[in-house]
TrEMBL record:
This is Myb-related 308-like. It comes from Olea europaea subsp. europaea. CDD domains: SANT. It is found in: Nucleus. Coiled coil: none annotated. SUPFAM superfamilies: Homeodomain-like (SSF46689). Transcription factor. GO terms for molecular function: DNA binding. InterPro entries: Homeodomain-like_sf, Myb_dom, Myb_TF_plants, SANT/Myb. Residues 9-61, 62-116 form the HTH myb-type domain.
Length: 251
DNA sequence: AAGCCCTCCAACCGCTTTGTG
DNA sequence: ACACAAAGCGGTTGGAGGGCT
């Protein structure tokens, strides 16, 4: 059985939006707010499908959009986030205020891919192009304060591999290609308050260090000399109560 | 000036996920 | 548990515009 169309296609406009359509959409959302995209076109007097309205608003008309060229810092952040998250554009966009997933996706495909290739880096794997897939040492990303068996189980359940220094327990190596499928969930408060256990001689990297920001105040693995008093770490500079690294679950 | 090629990006399409009854 | 609707997401496309010959 086929999927029912999202709208009555016979009576909808397609293609580029006109100024009048934009104005109507903006006026309607200002008056009524976002939501109920399916019924919005009719209510706003637009001959567009709801999906189209949503996309137009999110990608182009939203007042908080930061239009214009990407800064060098934004480039680097996108590269790092892409290395961690893959093509999860909406998650990446969530870390770049004022940028949309569509914008970042386009920017990646048109600029950053080329930039990485010119550096000799495979934009898909983030490895040097000539490097064999199995080469190199395994780097362990340590989730701060999560090195007990019980705690690690939570991540294992979520699909994250951890390196645990415990004789009887298996050693979980970091999967070389982290194919993260992430979801947002409430922050995990309890773990965030537990002290960091460095796991003996195992050198582990916290997220901050794995992102190349050693020595930052957010480093929690001590490799970069960061303060161990940090109970959690700031995933790409955003230590918030709403979304921290623990809020990233993998399927 | 004209034609071709390339780049960029807005918008579309189809699939997945989430919410609801 | 199931079906359906709605929303969200990521891949892809197509057209506008600019550069080059």
């Amino acid at each position: 059985m086929g999927r029912s169309p999202c709208c009555e296609k016979a009576h909808t406009n397609k293609g580029a939006w006109t100024k009048e359509e934009d104005d109507r959409l903006i006026a309607y959302i200002r008056a009524h707010g976002e939501g109920c995209w399916r019924s919005l076109p009719k209510a706003a007097g637009l001959l567009r499908c709801g999906k189209s309205c949503r996309l137009r608003w999110i990608n182009y008309l939203r007042p908080d959009l930061k239009r214009g060229n990407f800064a060098e810092e934004e480039d680097e952040l996108i590269i790092k986030l892409h290395g961690l998250l893959g093509n999860k554009w909406s998650l990446i966009a969530g870390r770049l205020p004022g940028r949309t997933d569509n914008e970042i996706k386009n920017y990646w495909n048109t600029h950053i891919r080329r930039k990485l290739l010119s550096r000799g880096i495979d934009p898909t794997t983030h490895r040097p192009i000539n490097e064999p897939a199995s080469a190199g040492e395994v780097t362990t990303i340590s989730f701060a304060g999560s090195t007990t068996k019980e705690e690690s189980d939570k991540f294992i359940t979520a699909g994250i591999n951890l390196n645990i220094k415990e004789e009887s327990s298996p050693v979980f190596e970091r999967c070389p290609d982290l194919n993260l499928e992430l979801r947002i969930s409430p922050p995990y408060q309890q773990q965030a308050q537990e002290p960091l256990k460095t796991g003996g001689s195992t050198a582990s990297l916290c997220f901050a260090c794995s992102l190349g920001v050693q020595n930052s105040k957010d480093c929690s693995c001590n490799i970069g000399g960061g303060s161990s008093s940090n109970s959690g770490y700031d995933f790409v500079g955003l230590k918030t109560g709403i979304l921290d690294y623990r809020s990233l679950e993998m399927k």
